[in-house]
């Protein structure tokens, strides 16, 4: 009798503007999955615990300055630090919920004026998520939430530009069908947003088959 292949875990990314509720919803989703008996793990980018992550953390808190291209490459390197682990966790059946990913790297750097294609290139071939949930909120609405303005990029004009780039990324991802991209209205209550997010999880669970894809593999 042939040995049954163990189904790999789902790779779900939650993206959005600052103060859109990403971290809250990512934590809630992990808890929800675990209650349903699914082995789930939360990962966050930037991972501020690594050597590279500590440099990024200092930059984001405006405690140090770096060239825009240099900090972009550090953000990408921070993701590559975990790429092998992401493959291993998913292959072992663990579902990963990722708070920010390569899409944020592109959005924030392109919003600062760096070329879009250049911003994308360091992350080509990273593990591709099965589903990306973009929590959409206007910068004006985000500004009303607690803690706004504590980090370098939490300024209305910057967030507006970031939102525009996210719109471009979402359109391209949807057109390529490389990975599902869903826009969620993050201006609703936390409970309402959580319900919408959960409604997109079960369909993905039924379609996760084979190896993890690679981001923008058509460019390789």
From TrEMBL:
PANTHER family assigned to the protein according to its UniProt record, in alphabetical order: THYMIDYLATE KINASE
Name by which UniProt lists this protein: Thymidylate kinase
SUPFAM superfamilies: P-loop containing nucleoside triphosphate hydrolases
Example GO BP: dTDP biosynthetic process
The protein's Enzyme Commission number: 2.7.4.9
Family membership: Belongs to the thymidylate kinase family.
Lineage: Eukaryota, Fungi, Dikarya, Basidiomycota, Agaricomycotina
Gene Ontology molecular function terms on file: ATP binding; dTMP kinase activity; nucleoside diphosphate kinase activity
PROSITE patterns, A to Z: THYMIDYLATE_KINASE
Domain Thymidylate kinase-like: from-to ranges: 14-197
């Amino acid at each position: 009798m042939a040995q049954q292949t163990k189904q790999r875990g789902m790779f779900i990314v939650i993206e959005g503007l600052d103060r859109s509720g990403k971290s809250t919803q990512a934590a809630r989703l992990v808890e929800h999955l675990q209650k349903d008996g699914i082995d789930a793990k939360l990962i966050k980018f930037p991972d501020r615990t690594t050597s590279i992550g500590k440099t990024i953390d200092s930059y984001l808190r405006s405690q140090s300055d770096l060239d825009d291209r240099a900090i972009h490459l550090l953000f990408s390197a921070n993701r590559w630090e975990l790429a092998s682990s992401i493959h291993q966790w998913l292959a072992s059946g663990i579902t990963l919920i990722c708070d920010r990913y390569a899409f944020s790297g592109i959005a924030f750097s392109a919003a600062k004026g760096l070329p879009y294609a250049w911003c994308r290139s360091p992350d080509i071939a990273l593990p591709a998520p099965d589903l990306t949930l973009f929590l959409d909120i206007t910068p004006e609405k985000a500004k009303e939430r607690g803690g706004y303005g504590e980090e370098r990029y939490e300024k209305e004009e910057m967030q507006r530009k970031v939102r525009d780039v996210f719109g471009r990324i979402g359109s391209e991802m949807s057109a390529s069908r490389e990975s599902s991209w869903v826009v969620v209205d993050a201006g609703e209550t936390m409970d309402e947003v959580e319900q919408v997010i959960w409604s997109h999880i079960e369909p993905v669970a039924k379609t996760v088959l084979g190896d993890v894809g690679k981001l923008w593999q058509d460019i390789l």
